[in-house]
Amino acid sequence: MSNDTLLERRHRLLGAGAPLFYDRPLHLVKGEGVRVWDSDGRVYLDAYNNVPHVGHCHPHVVEALADQAGRLNLSTRYLDERILDYGEALTATFADEISRVSLVCSGTEASELALRMARACTGNEGVIVTDFCYHGNSAVVAGLCTAFEMPEGIDPRVRTIRVPEADDDPVEAVAEVAAAIASMAEVGMKPAAIFFDTIFATEGMPAVPEGYVEQAVALTREAGGLYIADEVQPGLGRTGAGMWGHQLYDAVPDLVTLGKPLGSGHPLGGVVARPDLIDGFAAKAMYFNTFGGNPVSCAVGHAVLEVVERERLMENARKVGDHLQEGLLALGNKHATIGAPRGRGLFMGVPFFAEGDGKTPAPDLTKAAVNGMRERGVLISRTGRHDHVLKIRPPMPFSAADADQLLAALDETLDSLA
Question: Which of 197, 314, 317, 318 is most buried, with most CB under 10 Å away?
Answer without folding.
Answer: 317
